[in-house]
Write a structure and sequence with these properties.
The chain has a seven-stranded mixed β-sheet, sandwiched between helices. The protein has a three-stranded antiparallel β-sheet with strand order 9-10-12. Strands 1-11 form a two-stranded parallel sheet. Helix 11 runs antiparallel to helix 12. It folds into two domains: 144 residues, Aspartate Aminotransferase, domain 1, CATH 3.90.1150; 308 residues, 3-Layer(aba) Sandwich (Aspartate Aminotransferase, domain 2). Helices cover 47% and strands 11% of the residues. By secondary structure, the chain is of the alpha/beta class. The relative contact order is 0.18.
């Protein structure tokens, strides 16, 4: 007889009130329209290109130091000639543990080790592995997602047999439930899994540390699991870290019912590398590593030196931010020594696992750390400034049609309601055909597929090159002006 060590077999669960229409169908419908070859050719010919105002991808350039490292890696290392381990390149796992220890401080050092880190094929791979574990090993059957969210949650739940629904705020100017609303829903419905993104996608909302603590406690009191997703974060070098879903007291082990997901796609414009990761208790990590092995053998190796360096540079930037006025060179040198300790201890092997010759020697031999940090922070500051400037341009040009907007707290995705006078689907298709702009709207992120309403949320993604963004906004403004004149 099979034993489920984490299964809550002796307590009745309150079922979710309905089985929902999975939102991935809405995304499939939108993508089928946007990427139909004949239609896309016609739109590009008519408008000179597609204006990305809503893609959700960070289209701005990766920090130059990371690109240079990745290019050197392809010439000088053997990562693309070998498979990595099913849990991913050892150096990245060690660097993630190093960065998390610095971010969370001494209380978390006993909770996060490389054994708690698993690299995946994008954050979608982390979600797929995590939900497969929850369905197969925990027998989870219900999930509550706080706020509108990325539609891949829905297809993963659909595939593993987990009923899924969205919890929205009752307040007009927000989508993420308040902490009071979230705690009440969790207590009433007692879902097996609660999903929370910080910041939320598409609305860029966050909980502060006190609110997050209350939500985490509510999940624990309901006996549920928390899937905590930080993928939409820009992880800017000049911003404070977002609150973490861990207790303030010292942890000897990773919380057994927490799965924490991250990625380099949004934060570092590296979606094409498909580099995601999760942090979890070792039984979850072991399961997902086996899931990796069965699905794709191992995550992508290429670019791992850049991803490892990114974590080290994040720590350097944080320590300088926390110690204004201190000797910067000394802080950077100390951080490099600390990183070397982690990498030599946890990632000692060569790229073919044949000898002791780990990633640290390559990184330290290629980088002057103070110069690399200066370039890295300047490039990230430029990305942040570009996102803010693009949003300002959007507000000024589209202002007359902005019916509602949610105040951005973090990330680069804004959420607005536009006064279009059209149904959601009519707006999406007409804006693409007549203005050459693609929009992902409410049904792509919600738990329903009904695109017939005239009152719907629209994602505006500001991480785009300014000239592309400006052209898209200009075309959208003319489109809305023409539609208004016809009403």
């Amino acid at each position: 007889m099979r034993v489920f060590p984490h299964r809550r077999a002796y307590r009745k669960r309150r079922p979710l009130s309905r089985i929902v229409a999975m939102t991935y169908r809405s995304l499939e419908r939108a993508n089928a329209y946007f990427y139909d070859p004949a239609r896309r050719r016609a739109v590009i010919a008519r408008h000179g290109g597609v204006g990305y105002l809503s893609s959700g991808v960070n289209h701005l350039q990766t920090p130059r130091v990371l690109l240079d490292l990745a290019a050197r890696e392809l010439r000088e290392r053997r990562l693309i000639e070998n498979y990595t381990a099913p849990g991913g390149a050892l150096g990245i796992g060690a660097a993630i543990a190093f960065e998390m220890h610095d971010r969370l401080g001494r209380p978390a050092r006993g909770a996060i080790a490389p054994a708690n880190v698993c690299l995946t094929v994008g954050a979608t791979g982390a979600l797929a592995g995590a939900f497969r574990y929850l369905a197969d090993e925990v027998c989870a059957r219900s999930a509550l997602v706080l706020g509108l969210n990325y539609s891949f949650f829905s297809i993963v739940c659909d595939e593993v047999g987990i009923a899924y629904r969205i919890a929205r705020s009752e307040l007009r100017d927000r989508l993420l439930p308040t902490a009071d609303e979230a705690c009440a829903r969790i207590a009433a419905e007692r879902p097996d899994v609660v999903v929370l993104s910080q910041p939320t996608n598409p609305s860029g909302e966050t909980y502060d540390s006190g609110e997050l603590r209350r939500v985490v406690d509510a999940v624990a009191q309901a006996g549920g699991w928390l899937v905590f997703d930080e993928v939409p974060s820009l992880a800017a070098a000049d911003e404070d870290d977002l609150p973490a879903p861990l207790a303030d007291d010292t942890l000897a082990t990773f919380p057994p019912r927490l799965i924490w997901i991250g990625s380099y796609s949004k934060s570092r414009s590296l979606a094409g590398l498909r580099a995601g990761y999760l942090l979890a208790a070792q039984p979850v990590v072991d399961f997902v590593r086996k899931h990796n092995e069965r699905q794709s053998w191992s995550p992508v190796n290429a670019g791992s030196s850049a991803l490892t360096a990114d974590m080290i540079l994040r720590v350097m930037a944080r320590r300088l931010r926390r110690s204004p006025g201190r000797d910067a060179q000394r802080i950077v040198a100390r951080t490099a020594r600390d990183a070397r300790h982690y990498l030599e201890l946890f990632a000692p092997f060569s790229d073919d696992f044949a000898r002791f010759d780990g990633i640290w020697r390559f990184l330290d031999g290629e980088l002057d750390w103070p110069t690399a940090l200066e370039s890295y922070t300047a490039d990230l500051a430029t990305i942040g400034a570009t996102c803010r400037a693009n949003w300002s341009d959007f507000e000024q040009r589209i202002g007359p049609y902005l019916a509602h907007r949610i105040a951005l707290q973090s990330g680069f995705n804004h959420c607005v309601r536009l006064a279009t006078g059209m149904t959601e689907w009519d707006f999406v298709t007409a804006a693409f055909d007549q203005a050459g702009t693609d929009f992902y709207t409410e049904t792509v992120f919600a738990d329903h597929d009904d695109a017939s309403s005239t009152d719907f949320w629209v994602r505006v993604s500001c991480a785009a090159e300014p000239d592309m963004f400006e052209r898209g906004v200009d075309r959208l403004a003319h489109f809305l002006d023409a539609a208004s004149a016809r009403r």
